[in-house]
Design a protein that fits this description.
The chain is 0% helix and 50% strand. The protein is an all-beta fold.
């Protein structure tokens, strides 16, 4: 049994208005950018310091009439909040973000996208003006030119399949390339391939019991290959990472539509070939939030509510697989509320787990980058419990699909400038926990 440093979120004098966290970006300099929606003018920080000084950053409440808005916050490597801004006060769609090579943050929400400097200054905001077939933007990745590749989907009139839209923009937000993949899918991740130019785009189709869709595109947006993998039930990818060999690791939910979901993990090679897969079945629901490749093993962090945690609230469930998909170790950590892993990264101090606790972002630290044999989880709430989820024999089918990307004209995907409108609340000290 692990020994844990018990750090509970405090009951402070002012109830904070917390950010509904949608995405986090781990910067090359160790910074953490958080994006999401909120109905009030505050961001909960919850101690981005592995529990050394766990607290909550609050600002005065704007009252119950406050509209939802897109919030962006930046924290330094030591957990100190550097800035936070409200980019839009009308957005209601999920927010996605990526850091560019010029250390700007590009965010996408609904049919809009915007860029902020490392200091939180809003540089520009753009909107797609497709009235007939509106585009919903769902993923962002950096480009070498200093801009970003923004991916979304559009449902043509009287169509049963969606178009996958690829928009490459320059550092000023204007289009470098516009392409569409037909038939397409709804993207949830777009990932740069470090060993080759181009990107891997991961998502799901519109079918009710769908598979994981993966498309590989070159740097100019041309399609290289497009395929699906999945079980006979509904599979929805929620985490993915490019392997060092240029392939792909995906973590997905798998289960009947409307029923409990289990954990599906699979590795694909550089050409989309299936290397291995594993399905872990436990009580309750297991929703992966992050996946990480290390030397000879793979770590997956999920939100799981079937391991006897905090009155049914999900805890963080860590599973380590070897290079062939066999389980090396598994354990649940938490019990301080509704906990949801957002990212995994290896640092000098060990394995860093970025976690949303009741939508307040914090991070936990394992002294070793390997889950196996770790003797403590610094900063975690609640307690650690060993888990015994079992591998289930589940066939994984797959198919390579025909398709091609075609260029879109400017009139097919017009872009308009939006007058930048940001509000920067005054600095607020961390609340003192009792």
């Amino acid at each position: 049994m692990l020994g844990l440093a018990l750090v509970l979120l405090c009951a402070c004098e002012e109830a904070p208005v917390t950010l509904e966290v949608h995405d986090v970006v781990l910067g090359r300099d160790g910074t953490l950018t958080i994006v999401g929606l909120t109905a009030g003018p505050a961001l909960a920080d919850a101690g981005l310091d592995a529990g050394v000084d766990s607290g909550v950053v609050v600002v005065p409440d704007a009252g119950p009439e406050a509209e939802p808005g897109v919030w962006v916050s930046r924290a330094a490597a030591d957990g100190t909040e550097q800035w936070r801004v409200l980019v839009s006060d009308t957005a209601r769609a999920p927010v996605h973000a990526a850091e560019t090579v010029t250390e700007r943050v590009v965010i996408a929400f609904g049919s809009s996208y915007a860029a902020l400097t490392a200091n939180g200054e809003l540089l520009w905001q753009r909107s797609l003006a497709m009235a007939a077939n509106p585009v919903t933007l769902t993923a962002v990745a950096p480009l070498d030119e200093g801009g970003a590749l923004i991916v979304g989907h559009a449902l043509p009139m009287a169509a049963t399949a969606t178009d996958l839209v690829l928009l490459a923009v320059d550092s000023d937000g204007w289009a470098l390339r516009r392409r569409v993949l037909r038939p397409g899918f709804v993207a949830s991740r777009v990932l740069r391939r470090p060993s080759a130019s181009g990107f891997l785009i991961v998502g799901a189709g519109l079918e009710e019991s769908g598979d994981v869709h993966v498309a590989a595109v070159a740097a100019d947006g041309a399609l290289e290959w497009y395929g699906t993998v999945g079980t006979p039930v509904d599979d929805r990818v929620t985490a993915a990472v490019v392997t060092r060999a240029g392939g792909l690791l995906v973590a997905a939910t798998t289960g009947p539509v409307g029923g409990e979901v289990d954990l599906l993990v699979a590795e694909l090679g550089p050409a989309g070939e299936l290397r291995w897969h594993a399905v872990l079945e436990a009580r309750g629901n297991e929703v992966p939030g992050a996946i990480l490749e290390s030397d000879g093993y793979v770590t997956v962090a999920s939100a799981a509510d079937g391991f006897g945690g905090d009155q049914g609230d999900p805890d963080v469930w860590l599973v380590s697989f070897d290079g062939s998909g066999a389980v090396r170790d598994q354990r649940a950590v938490g019990g301080g509320g509704r906990e949801r892993p957002l990212a995994l990264t290896e640092g000098r101090d060990g394995l860093q787990i970025i976690v949303a606790v009741e939508d307040a972002v914090t991070h936990w630290t394992l002294p070793s980058p390997d889950v196996v044999g770790a003797r403590s989880v610094e900063g975690a709430c609640g307690q650690e419990r060993t888990t015994g989820a079992l591998l289930r024999a589940e066939a994984l089918g797959g198919a390579m699909l025909d398709g091609a990307t075609e260029a879109l004209a400017d009139t097919d995907l017009p872009i308009t400038a939006v007058e930048p409108d940001t509000r920067r609340p005054p600095p607020a000290p961390a609340a003192v926990c009792r």
